[in-house]
Amino acid sequence: MPESPTVAPTVTELLSTAVAALGGQERPGQVAMAEAVTAAMEQGEHLLVQAGTGTGKSLAYLVPSLLHEDRVVIATATLALQHQLVERDLPRLVEAVKDSGVDTSYAVLKGRSNYACLHRIREGVPDDQGALVELPEGSLGKKVLELRAWAEEEAGQGGSGERDNAPRHTDKEWRQVSVNHRECLGAAKCPFGQECFAELAREKAHRSHLVVTNHSLLAIDAIEGVPMIPEYDVVVIDEAHELTTRVTQAATDELWAAEVERAARRSQRHVSAGGEGSEADDLADAADALREAINAARPGRFDRIPQDLGDALVLVRDAARACLSAYPKGSDDADAGMQQAKGAVQEVFATAERMAADLDSDVLWMSEGTERMPPRLCVAPLQVWGPMRDKLLADKTVVFTSATLKLGGDFGTVARTVGLKPEDDEMPWRGLDVGSPFDYGKQAILYVARHLPPPGRDGLVQAQLDEIVDLVDAANGRTLGLFSSRRAAEAAAAVVRERLPHLTTLAQGDAQLPELAAQFVGDPHTCLFGTLSLWQGLDVPGDTCQLVLIDRIPFPRPDDPLLSARQKAADEAGGNGFMQVAATHAALLLAQGAGRLIRTHTDRGVVAVLDPRLATARYGGFLKASLPPMWTTTDPALVRQALSRLAAG
Description:
The protein is an alpha/beta fold. The chain has 25 helices and 20 strands.
């Protein structure tokens, strides 16, 4: 008798198989999410799904993605999650469901500069005149040799050549062994095109059912229209609360005089070979004009571009265009020095052209210079929801997921930022909160220090410092302090070190973040104080962290050029700019910060917000509704008692 055709498993069957094989327990929230993701993919309906920590959301979207008939793209914001998916979740899932008959092929895809370039490694790096030089001197040269040896080993063993797998290095060191997309010769011209790590990654992606990438590459592919990812019809966006920030970053350009000067120097020998060479000199002169205009301008946002600066940008734009035209035509030789020099001029031209246009859809500002970094011009899109709606949501089915998508108690706020409307007949979507396996009402206390003075512009006041010492003392360490500035974190650390010398107090900047996190986890009588970069991604389950301190509601700075422009635009459109921009920004960060506390079923502790406005201001209700449903109090004595009991074990 002929064999009966294999019937594909349902999403609940495959999820159950995977969970059992991985030694986990079936969670109602995970099942509900997997079913909703499946329905969204089948019906072409966008989905926003909030899944609290511990839900197992990765499996809840990976299993439906494997069962979907066409390729699915998974986009993450952080390297940590991408690494978790590729190194842990996907291999274990593939092993668990290998006998189910589904296509379990997957690949990782990143921007070209994330891969080592074999041409640059074997042929050398161009100097400022565009000539290839063998090796920089000193410690930089030693590190480059180490990176080259690693890349050759990767090539010999069929490795990925990805930056994340490389020996420890700085950005400057990595640039010696990598190229961006403009500097690349292209596989057809490059003598090492057949071995190219970036090309091999793209080829693997074309053969794979799942493609794991990042928000930035997704934005470049879908929104900017530069083909980076193989054809797909569904994308799952994890860490979706970060999406608009990452899309904005991908569409942000910078320009400064030294960059224009360097592009001119690198062009000199190539332009001289193709023409008179004066075009490179003209570009250098334009760099001088740009430097003068930048020095005469005030840092901050430009509502309208100053005349001198506008004239300088036009000069740079036109000089860069002329310089590009002067490069030799029709040469088929794979001249890496020329390609990379020309790429630098193309970058300058594109950015200067965009800035000189002074479009209402862009925000232009000048950064403050530092000892290490000169002032620079920056341009970013005023909003990204429009392009996301027109170029991503209109063409693909999108599943957005995160532990933080409901702000103020509903999905509408986040939905609007990604391009979806509350009642959207054109692009139907739904929001689903599958809850959390944790009992926040019993596991966590939200303490709002209502008795403290509102925070001022001058950093922490004595009353806040006293409160921090009292809370840390009651917790006997075990504290993660999340502060609005590096100065505030360092001030708090100094006072705690002085008044509680029996505890170990670490501040961001004392060492690399992974090293600080390891110390923090290793000794419960430790405090770790830091800024924004600690708010997201730090995972410290257990009694290491029983107190999360937040010094103030994390509103954006009033002088933040981009967010202040977005707030003003929302007001002018008849909306409430403060709530739509500033309060939304604060709610997301506050929720992410509070989320550091409860990571497992056995975690217990306190989130202490030292900003009375959370209890007294009208917007406080919106912010609190964005947090996990913790038991709330404003009583400092009660909180200190609770922390002392926890510390006593």
